[in-house]
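Translate structure to sequence.
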């Protein structure tokens, strides 16, 4: 089955470019388009895409609020890939905090766009971990977020789970973590699932943001 994608951007040329790049791949299908975040909820309910590629800045409803609304109101929501003009942008970090799974620059090369969509859909790696770390260091309340600290304390991660979370924050995939810890990939998947459940995180991006915000992992 192909990865299905909904494109949300107020610039028609951006949507056209993304569609051309993605539909050139046999395993990706663009199932719809929208010009503003306000149209996301009904289209997601109608089309059930695997991934929403969404501009972070739009005139009526921006990508941050659209992400919050989507995750709050839709059962089994899709993965959310924020598409942005600027890499070092507080809006991008706020979208990640709101629940987006990763971000992509509009000037990215076609191969990078395709890789980002596939990676977000699979959910087994952190997209652009160095950039996420930089955003957290620049805009995050790292170590000072009492709510995030409380979540980490309540989670009571085991020593191995804590080690897995630190490696996730460095951007290692499940296979890379397995190699590092000399265990099987299925064992790592089990640890990752446990970490996400204990933190109440829907994916590894949210778990890593929580780790940075709580001070459990330093972004620099």
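Result:
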């Amino acid at each position: 089955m192909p990865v299905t994608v909904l494109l949300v951007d107020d610039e028609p040329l951006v949507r056209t470019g993304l569609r051309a790049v993605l539909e050139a791949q046999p395993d990706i299908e663009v199932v719809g388009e929208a010009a503003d975040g306000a149209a996301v909820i009904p289209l997601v309910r109608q089309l059930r895409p695997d991934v929403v590629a969404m501009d972070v800045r739009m005139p009526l409803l921006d990508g941050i609020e659209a992400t919050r609304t989507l995750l709050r109101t839709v059962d089994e929501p899709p993965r959310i890939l924020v598409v942005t003009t600027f890499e070092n942008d507080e809006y991008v970090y706020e979208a990640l905090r709101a629940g987006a799974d990763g971000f992509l620059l509009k000037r990215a090369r076609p191969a990078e766009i395709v890789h980002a969509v596939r990676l977000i859909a699979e959910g087994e790696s952190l997209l652009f971990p160095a950039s996420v770390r930089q955003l957290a260091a620049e805009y995050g309340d790292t170590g000072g977020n009492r709510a995030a600290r409380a979540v980490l304390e309540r989670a009571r991660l085991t020593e191995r789970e804590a080690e897995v979370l630190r490696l996730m924050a460095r951007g290692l995939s499940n296979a890379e973590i397995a190699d590092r810890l000399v265990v099987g990939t299925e064992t790592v998947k089990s640890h990752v699932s446990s970490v996400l459940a204990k933190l109440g995180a829907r994916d590894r991006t949210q778990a890593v943001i929580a780790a940075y915000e709580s001070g459990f992992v330093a972004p620099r």
